[in-house]
Specification:
Length: 147
């Protein structure tokens, strides 16, 4: 039965769950998480700005190993035959989004347009009009030319 405890995280059989993010900025500061990407994620996902009523902010701990072994790129060269537009926030942070976007750009067989918005972080691209407008303007041009 030891495997069951590891699988569920408890003797009760309930799945072990952990927070994706601290629930508040105060909670993050208490545990020493003060980097800009974490605080921006909390400010978006854990406030009315981006909160979803169905979000528990909890993940199944047993899924961590699956995330670590996931390779989103292994079929890019075979599946991404359509024209590709990549839009990235240019400030490299701890989200990995810049690096992942650049990797996709390098592996895709038909890259067409790459836009990097300098000095901006991943979460700022979600809903700050200046950055969203720049991305949408570029997308409109891309879709007009490639659809």
């Amino acid at each position: 039965m030891e495997w069951a405890q590891e699988f569920t995280g408890s003797r009760s059989g309930e799945p072990a769950r952990a927070n994706w993010l601290p629930d508040t900025l105060e909670e993050a500061a208490t545990v020493g998480l003060t980097d800009v990407d974490t605080t921006q994620a909390i400010a978006y996902y854990r406030t009315e700005r981006g909160r979803n009523e169905h979000s528990t902010n909890r993940r199944l701990s047993r899924g961590d190993s699956l995330l670590l072994g996931y390779d989103a790129y292994h079929l890019v060269d075979q599946l991404m035959t359509q024209p590709l537009q990549v839009i990235l926030a240019g400030r490299i942070g701890n989200t990995g989004s810049y690096e992942f976007g650049m990797q996709l750009w390098k592996l895709a067989p038909n890259p067409v347009d790459l836009l990097v918005i300098d000095g901006v972080g991943h979460y700022e691209m979600y809903d700050e009009p200046e950055y969203v407008d720049a991305a949408v303007e570029r997308l409109v041009s891309f879709y007009s030319d490639n659809l």
